Input
Amino acid sequence: MKKHGFEEMNLKAVLFDMDGVLFDSMPNHALAWSEGMKKYGLPMTKEEAYMHEGRTGAGTINILAQRTWGRDATEEEKQQIYAWKTEVFNKCPQAGPMPGAAELLNQIKADGLQIVLVTGSGQKSLLDRLNTHFPGIFTSDKMVTAFDVKYGKPNPEPYLMGLQKAGVKPNEAIVVENAPLGVQAGVAANIFTVAVNTGPLPDSVLLCEGANLLCHSMNELSEKWNNLLKSFRSCE
Ligand code: MG
Output
């Protein structure tokens, strides 16, 4: 609380990232990036894909273009290259829900807190998929996606929009994130940020971005949830 300059914490909403938090989809994304970019002569390792997670596709492509070609990618290139990455991604077997995610979401709902999705993803069937795996949890008015934002993570914009959608202040919410840039965005929005390290990066990468708490799986966070909520409520 001191770190965030809060006098008190009054938890009303939990803002969830999606890839690598609710769905075990990051291995597919990392593969699609590293394989897909080969066609355009833009080398990218899987680990690097994890480092860029959360950034918009266009933003990531531009970084690769600057590095390899020494110039910005044109809008046409960004669209074409991202479309190919999406095609490679769509060939991967569909990723399942992250173990422990459904349990955690149901607990949070039962605790009477709002649940908001804040994702950089722009998949069209996103809500249908969420409803299939997490029925009764997500609604379209409590979602921030790639279609809503101008800057995207690591800018605080998506999480600030998430607060707005929930009608709450930074000291009334927490963020659950798996990616370094996502943690950076949550922290920049001045929200208590829980990092769940579900990927191959070292914990220190997430902690260095300012994560307030770190778990190694959604199962772990789900198991710790009751105690965590008690701690927050003791700060009210
Ligand atoms: Mg993520």
